[in-house]
Amino acid sequence: MALTLMDGNEAVAWGAFDAGCRFFAGYPITPATGIYSTMLRILPPAGGIVLQGEDEIASLGFCLGASMAGYKAMTATSGPGISLFSENISLAIGSEIPVVIVDVQRLGPSTGYATKGADGDIQFLRWGNSGGIPPIVLAPVDVADCYTLTIHAFNLAERFRTPVFVAPSKEIGMTRESVDFDRLVASRPAPVERLPNPSDSPYIPFRVAAGEDVPRFAPIGGETISRQTSSTHGEEGYITSDSSVISAQVARLYRKIEATVDEFSFYQADTADGSETLVITYGVTSRAARRACVELRAEGRSVSQLFLKTLWPVPETLIRNIAEPYRRILVVEANLGQYVREVEHVLKNKTVDFLGVMDGRLIEPVRIKEVLRE
Amino acid sequence: MALTLMDGNEAVAWGAFDAGCRFFAGYPITPATGIYSTMLRILPPAGGIVLQGEDEIASLGFCLGASMAGYKAMTATSGPGISLFSENISLAIGSEIPVVIVDVQRLGPSTGYATKGADGDIQFLRWGNSGGIPPIVLAPVDVADCYTLTIHAFNLAERFRTPVFVAPSKEIGMTRESVDFDRLVASRPAPVERLPNPSDSPYIPFRVAAGEDVPRFAPIGGETISRQTSSTHGEEGYITSDSSVISAQVARLYRKIEATVDEFSFYQADTADGSETLVITYGVTSRAARRACVELRAEGRSVSQLFLKTLWPVPETLIRNIAEPYRRILVVEANLGQYVREVEHVLKNKTVDFLGVMDGRLIEPVRIKEVLRE
Amino acid sequence: MALTLMDGNEAVAWGAFDAGCRFFAGYPITPATGIYSTMLRILPPAGGIVLQGEDEIASLGFCLGASMAGYKAMTATSGPGISLFSENISLAIGSEIPVVIVDVQRLGPSTGYATKGADGDIQFLRWGNSGGIPPIVLAPVDVADCYTLTIHAFNLAERFRTPVFVAPSKEIGMTRESVDFDRLVASRPAPVERLPNPSDSPYIPFRVAAGEDVPRFAPIGGETISRQTSSTHGEEGYITSDSSVISAQVARLYRKIEATVDEFSFYQADTADGSETLVITYGVTSRAARRACVELRAEGRSVSQLFLKTLWPVPETLIRNIAEPYRRILVVEANLGQYVREVEHVLKNKTVDFLGVMDGRLIEPVRIKEVLRE
Amino acid sequence: MALTLMDGNEAVAWGAFDAGCRFFAGYPITPATGIYSTMLRILPPAGGIVLQGEDEIASLGFCLGASMAGYKAMTATSGPGISLFSENISLAIGSEIPVVIVDVQRLGPSTGYATKGADGDIQFLRWGNSGGIPPIVLAPVDVADCYTLTIHAFNLAERFRTPVFVAPSKEIGMTRESVDFDRLVASRPAPVERLPNPSDSPYIPFRVAAGEDVPRFAPIGGETISRQTSSTHGEEGYITSDSSVISAQVARLYRKIEATVDEFSFYQADTADGSETLVITYGVTSRAARRACVELRAEGRSVSQLFLKTLWPVPETLIRNIAEPYRRILVVEANLGQYVREVEHVLKNKTVDFLGVMDGRLIEPVRIKEVLRE
To answer: Which ipTM value was assigned to this complex?
Structure first.
């Protein structure tokens, strides 16, 4: 076993590469720039394309164009850049354009203190588009997750033709850890490819075949004519105001994501016999929680943990199943209460406590222990 | 009583005017353009300023600048424009800049079918900024509300130094109704003005006096030096990474809005003795609900209604108090389930049913009746 | 006589004000920012409007819009900003929109050394638009000229419905001189107003009445419908591909400026009996030339001078008349030879020598004397 | 001999390709879009890059970046796009960045009649940058020239590290001609490559070796540190205000282009014994002139012709030598008199007549014959 020293941004870039990503466009912003610079180093020698857009709007626009032409595409930014993405995210959702967007979160509001981290964009990533249709959001806990979840992100983007977010915080993106990278690579998920239209059938851009939940793909600029519009459209890809068509299309956009979440509910659980409390966390905070649990167990207190790595759609079945035995739930977040709302929603009949901090610092294990001792 | 024929956009403009708004900057988009054109007609003759920005980003930027200089300022757009506002909204929240933003909602995702309405931005308005700090969102039911709630919006923006959204849908903004405008004007809320710094004390831009919850105001460019930064800052307005300062500032930004919502929980309730079900709605859908209830009562069925006009922060006390007697709650929305999440959260122990439609059409009373009859 | 200490930028602003300018939009750039800040101080209290655009393109765009609505409008920038104006200049020329543009020239190429001056844009101002149709360019020698020529610039813009440039260099714009401002104001040119359409005749936007050389004006947004297009158009303001119409329109755009230059050939001449050489200069270099001539005369050498203040269209008659008696012409410019080309063109049969410098410094009198002694 | 049917835009693209161009960025505009679409077809399969920028500013910016990284880069647009290039052209001149810019001219002013052609940008291409330092401008007469001159343009850009314009009009760019393309390719100029820094000497970005006139090149991002600034700079590439350094740098920028024009004075001459008149033209107008001369010769009148293909710097020696025997010169241009100014300047002692048209139509041979018969 040879350990590599690598930060989360590099791991995201290598994950993208190993997922088959060959197009990256971005605009520099600390703490996400490391992804850009790594892509710049590794993509072009492999025949890939790396671009700096005139701004964040252009960068995501380039990615959508590249994706429509058949590339696996990614961009990366932080909160102030995510703030410029909503229009294109909504386009990607409505027109079913696969794309991976990395949000290396920093402290808000606004530019916050550049650059200290926090998980301030958790609801923004879910709701930051007009219309309210859900994207997928994955949250890594460490550098290894940055690699593996980025591959999953591409696979989900291709599988469901949707934008998928990867949402580390600055503390993961810019901190180097030693990681057994060879092992990570050896056990990586197999890449998933967009399903092309069968060659023996005519191409209807947004028609969904029986037994499938997303339309087949034909690249813009290819032999087959493909059609895209930012407007409500029917199977043919033409704008429509037919309410039954709109209704069916919108319902399918919800269903393809929300009804399938059990297939991609990534998590890590560490349950201990006899413990009454389950700590639910995500992101870098999970590591403080892990440490707190280890220390409490050393003191003889039994505490269980669930680290969520799929945040959206909410993995309700997963949360419900794992939380079932526990009397008390503690959600810990690097914000003033975002994902706890979802946990409360899923676990209506349980006591859900919350510890949240948003002051530019990591939540320390000692603070979690204090709450758990209460 | 003389009735006037007026649409919601005109009513918003007159509400703004009567609230003391003298600055409007916008970029045209159906269905919000009527607000722009009305402001263009009424503001300049009164010494006010109306500007078209180069785009939506510039438009809201102009408003923030005008507000910092002491103007009551407003912009108006629809979903695709709101999609470009996040960066400036986050700035306004973090730097406590009063501004009123009207979102005449149309059908998404993306450009949807321009222009059919829906209430697709309800969660976007709450969460569409980096950091997750709450703004205020008001939702009119009709043209009269457009007038009155816009005045409230300005009053709240000034009172709490925060962005306030007014969120009609296209069906309210662009539909003319007969309204007793003279009576509306006669009973309008009194304008609230930003509190200036007392002349006998030095000005510390973000210091909050004892017993107050927002800092006093001094205009940029005035005699007193004021300071603004998009970064985390202390009382003096200088950037800081001091976690106790950041923590206190962020907590206050939450508290000033969330702890005071009982002061501005606008609503309309129509409760009937003996009814088991409470229909909760907002926006234009309320009018279909009202019609459904009238018809059901004519059939001898007792149904009660609550029309929420303050959506964010969630008026929890209000909802809890009014819902208390009812066994069943039905939330009806012109989307696939956005605000129902909040109602479920507040009313954990009740059965909350949901009827949502997002197909470009108004929800008809008959559909609500069908669900209520179940 | 009371002297005022004033720099060229302030004088430009006051000239604009006294010419009736009530609209200014700009984007800050040293060495032109003083015009912006002065306008900001004096225009709003008089009911005028001052705007910062999102960039230089928006700023000039705002000015054109304001002008089309009837305002006398001005913007001010330097070389890098002028570099973004070409599209709108071409629009203003083709659509006959009056506007005054101040170019406080600094050293190029590109950003040069910010901020040292030079007269590097002299040909750029003439030719920096697609199609090659001429604007008017005036060049002040000192602060007094900044005031007076700016008034002339507005008068010419209104009279000929065309963009007019005022082109000081950084050395004039940002240098304070003592000036008898009261006398300047007392002897200022009377403001010229755009000629409106006679009330008794229908309005044809681009029709030129008999005996006139530009069409009458009706403001956009006024009672009369006006039409503008950036395309080739006939009298009615509709796009046309009729070659005879295009030909007549283009010819008129040339003629109205070039055939009338004798009406506005501003200059200052200091001729001495018996001198064989005429020094032709413009801008701040004129002052070095003046000093050189004074010193040479003290030595007993007779030299004459012509300071051109109208640069474009080339005041050929003026140059020819004044230069007639001289055997030798010396053109001195703060660039490597721009306007000397025009002088050579007009004075084909004379010896035209040239002294040009472009190194960030003012041309010193001693260098001019050296050349004159040759 | 196999003839190919090809338009000027395609020929430009193939010329670029055969010159070694592997980077193209542009923004679509008729009549230049054919270059973009052809590059899109031929460059990527050869490992080249084709990009659409967010606008013209970004497009040329991309090209400059690519060029600084070592690519041979090209963009193509028309007048309204050229109008957005000045800032980047000035940067390319001052920082000595090779780039080829194609201006497929259409009728101005402003958008003119899209799309009819004219040669309206001839002075704009020379003077459309702040500072007045000259670029190189080549003008093709036909499709074959589009191919060959584009190769020359790249060679000159690389040789002199400067922007080079290729300036056909719409009538050449969008008109298909039959051309013996194999022969053209067989006789094409050999590609010229940027001279790298010798490996045995340290790299000083703007130092010019003895006997050379431009600095050697090292790519940005390569092993050697290179430096660029848009400001005045010395050999080291750092900003400087040292007037002797600035003066030397600016003088060299002029000299490297103007003193070498005899090396690249492209032209075609058809002189006839005994003719008194020489017709000087360029661009598509040359073809009408050729036809006029043929017809006049058939009538027994002897007329000579000179088609200039290098317009800037003005090939003075060439013009002077060829024009020497003629009493009368006629310049014909598709504008109202732009290049005739240069001819008059060079041939001060000759009668220079002018025929110019700018009405959206080609100049017909019959009109030229009329003038020649006078």
So the answer is: 0.95
